[in-house]
Specification:
about 120 residues, mainly alpha, about 85% helix, single chain
């Protein structure tokens, strides 16, 4: 990964993760409501990372759909089920979970795209 790709990836991943955390914190007490926003954010993140690495939109979009949906549903589902309904604590933990899931997804996808480039 070049330094430019790393810088662009880092900025993109951190920005989307922060935005996702804000969405999750605001919608914590409404079951699955933030998934409506988080899944498209993750898809846009993966498509954006695809462009950073010069990959075709078709490939990065397919990866985004699979990875984004799976990560969000699993990570957020567990968080909401355990503590999402508790005011304040639920908001904080949902925000943290969304941030962590998006960060992990972003870096996994970036490394995968780097590997595919050779």
């Amino acid at each position: 990964m070049t330094s430019i790709q790393l810088r662009k990836s880092r900025r993109m991943i951190h920005g989307v993760a922060l935005l996702g955390a804000l969405v999750a914190a605001g919608l914590a007490q409404l079951p699955a409501s933030d998934n409506v926003v988080l899944v498209p954010l993750e898809i846009l993140l993966v498509i954006g990372l695809g462009s950073v690495f010069g990959l075709r939109l078709r490939h990065s979009y397919r990866t985004a759909l699979i990875a984004g949906t799976a990560c969000t549903m699993i990570g957020r589902g567990i968080s909401e089920w355990l503590v999402g309904w508790i005011p304040v604590l639920g908001n904080f933990l949902d925000a943290f979970t969304a941030f962590a899931v998006i960060e992990a997804l972003g870096w996994i996808v970036a490394r995968e795209f780097q590997r595919e480039m050779g």
